[in-house]
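Late entry, written up from scratch paper. The run itself happened at the end of the previous shift, but nothing got recorded in the book at the time, so transcribing now.
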Amino acid sequence: MHKVQWKEIEIEKRNTFKDYLLLADESEEIVSEYINDGEMFAVHCEGQIIGVALFIFHPNGIVELKNIAISEGYRGKGLGKQVVKEAFHLYKLKGFHKMIVGTANSSIDNLAFYQKLGFRMTEIKKDFFKKYPTPIYESGIRALDMVMLEIDL
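Output as recorded:
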């Protein structure tokens, strides 16, 4: 199994990684709203950048996995799981006690991915994706609602 490393990206360099963020969030307008928030990391494997992860912070010791994207050729190899598990450890050490993540009702693979990592569904934000400029469809399902999940660190 390949090992990932990750390196924090300075705010002034984040826009050069926007294409990775757009792998996980199809709206450039929405990505632009959060790209400079929190901490963003470049994910490296075999000496090259294969993705990104962006985390934002909420009150009461909560960190949100706002965006994680792995290049298509590296998906399904456990690399995204490595990143999230390392994030559990990192943010627990930083004093956070809970991680949250949101994904579309239509993102069947994402819902499975997060639940396999131990996240539990906690909330549905109805019509969240209606504000996106272009409707999103996955597996023949329109993305309308945001499914929120969380895990205790």
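Residues 4-152 form a domain with the Aminopeptidase fold (CATH 3.40.630.30).
(Scratch paper discarded after transcription.)
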